[in-house]
Every structure is written in structure tokens, then in C-alpha cells.
Amino acid sequence: MDKELQDKIEGLIASKKIFLFMKGTPDAPMCGFSAGVTNVLRSLGADYNSFNVLSDIGVREGIKEFANWPTIPQLYIDGEFIGGHDIVVEMAKSGELQKKIGA
Amino acid sequence: MTVQEIQEKIQAGLPGSEVEIQDPYNDGVHIKAIVKFSGFAGKSIVEQHRMVYATLKHELKAEVHALGLETKVS
Q1: What is B3-72's CATH number?
Q2: Which segments does the entry list as coiled coil (chain B) (predicted)?
Q3: Closest chain B residue by Cα to residue A69
Q4: Would the annotation count A32 as a binding residue?
Q5: ipTM of the prediction greater than 0.85, yes or no
Q6: Residue B60 is nearest to which of A33, A71, A82, comparing CB atoms?
């Protein structure tokens, strides 16, 4: 991955405590898994920023390499990769996600 | 790529694992894999999922749009 792209991705992740790479936007998710994660974050009242990977093919492919994770959505908290849809849902059920976001 | 091929790929990559594939929409696209594997012991859930994804590296780039995953230590 070139440095410019990596800097861009790192900059996005650092821009907010909770950051979500998704398909579409929180108000108009373009994939069921992205919608699922935004629903979880909304239900917890989480304050987060998101990036629509459908708007940027470089980030869309780069983020997979960056996280060593082949799918989107991807959730980051305090700069740490948390997981995709299944992990987020599971962590919300167990209460672990609430702890991480301080909800 | 059939559901059975996905199951075989995961099992080949994680020898001794038990793999159940669910295809709730019967479209072969939005599938879910439930994987039980002794090698998950001591690994975080992210690492467990990465191990499964690694067995499907090519497939996830192409045909499979979304793979739901549930991993358990067997």
C-alpha cells in the first residue's frame, strides 16, 4: 500500500474515538452488514464518524489490506481494529462493546 | 463456488475443524459459516475470524460478497 493511502486511512481512524468504514452512510447504508453495525452503534448512542468506502475505491481496497481483514464494515475504537459485523454484534450482546465505547 | 466447496476449503485450511454452512437466502452469496476448531484456543475473536478468512482468501475477493462467521473453540 502506498504511503499516501496509508496516511489517509490512519488519519481517518485517528479523527474520532469511534470510526466506522462502511458501505453507504449511517442514514443510507448500502449493505445489510453495514446497516447492522450502524444499528448497534445507534442503539448504544455512540458518537462516531464514518467513511463511505463506495465513494473511494482506494480506501475500499486499502482498508482490507490495512486491517488484514477482507470485508467491510470495519469498526475502530481508539485506533484499534475491533472487527466486522459479526464481532460487533457479539460484543454488543456480551456488553464488551459498551465498555470499549464507554457507553 | 458452492456452499459445499466453501465448507471444504475451510476444513482443508483448518484441519480437524467442524464447519456448518448456512445459506439463509439460498443464494450462495450471503452465507454464514459456523466453525468449531481446537486451534482457536487462546486466540482473540479477531484472530479466529482471520484464520477462517485466510482459508477463503481468493473466494472472498470474488464470488462471496459477505460471509457471516461464528467461531467456537472445539
Answers
A1: 3.30.300.90
A2: none
A3: B50
A4: no
A5: no
A6: A71
